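Hi there. Long-time user, first ticket. I'm pasting a complex I've been working with (about 299 residues overall). I'd like to know whether the download I got is complete or cut off, because the file seemed smaller than I expected. Thanks.
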Amino acid sequence: MHYFLCLLLLMVGLFGALTQKNLIKIILSVAIIEHAVNTFLIMVGYRHDGTAPIVDRAQVAGSSFASGAVDPLPQAMVLTAIVISLGVLALMVAVAMRLYHTYGTYDITEIRKLRG
Amino acid sequence: MINLLTLVLIFMIIGAIISIWTTDLLSAIIAVGAVGFGSSVVFLLLRAPDVALAPVVVEVLMLVILIRATVGRDVHTIGSAREIFGLSVAAVLVLLLLAFAVHAIGGLPEFGEPVMARVADAPASYYLENGLSQTGSANIVTAVLLDFRGYDTLGEATVLFGAILGAMTLLRRKSRTDKPRQE
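Hi, the file is complete. Here it is re-exported in full:
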């Protein structure tokens, strides 16, 4: 159920990226896809009634902590992916602004000719 | 709590649909911001407090960057979608992919049972058991990021540096030789 909702979010973003004419809307669709994938990866590591992967002061790390905490590995990787997505978005916006500077529009059906 | 998770996910889907169907670019950007903050709430509900903090910062920066790209430009004359043929092809492709993805969900473990509970010596359980004693960090996510998988973080910093360098180069007004751009 939750996996399915996550996939639905990804498909909405993919549909937007395929059908929109405006460059900024395409960039926004890519951002939606990134959110969906990040949420999905965190969901894969979730454990029912699990605790956050932070060791309590009273609790010594051991088998009881390891069997009760959620998976820390997807969380670390998603933290990396979120920061990278910001950099990629900045690069996409820079390319779009340069295209606007050259063509005077964000409409991708107007941007047909390739010139420097 | 699980029902709250479903509600927030539906909120994110509605925000995504609004951002794609509205013709006003500023509303679309703000709707994507709502999707991002919704994902932050989802991370909190899924017991990932470190990850929940990152989207807050990232969303604010994203908003600033995107509004810088749209404000003061002629952006309202573009129609929202392409012709009917492209729309239908995209819809068929997306539905086909969704069917495959729903089929693939059946091969995943149930929601709430991580893979590390099935595999005998998964690296994640090793990190959980030995993270505190080997790295001295009570937060296992930080231990993974900065110690066990430090090279990944180095690669992340490299990718981020490269992306920002590319953006700076593209947005530079004058070329290095101080000649104006030939248009």
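A couple of notes from our side: Chain A has one domain: 2-53+64-103. The CA atoms of residues 47 and 70 of chain A lie 5 Å apart.
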